[in-house]
Amino acid sequence: MASLTYRYRYKNYDITIVGYEVPGGWRMAIEIRRGDSAQVIRDTEHLYRDFNSLRSIGVLNAHLAIHSRSDHVD
Question: How far is the C-alpha of 44 from the C-alpha of 72, rounded, in Å?
């Protein structure tokens, strides 16, 4: 089993998307960090067919989480 990581910066947030290979597909975790504050989102409900699919959904979920935060400023 493997794991892959995708890191990027978006609007003063450091985002890490981690994919964990499990039998039948991939599971996802997202860490959204701004300074000392961190939010971790674990998706244990969905199984993704490959890391590229997981990464695309992870980017979308990270952006939605950032825009729903009370401390978010555009």
Answer: 26
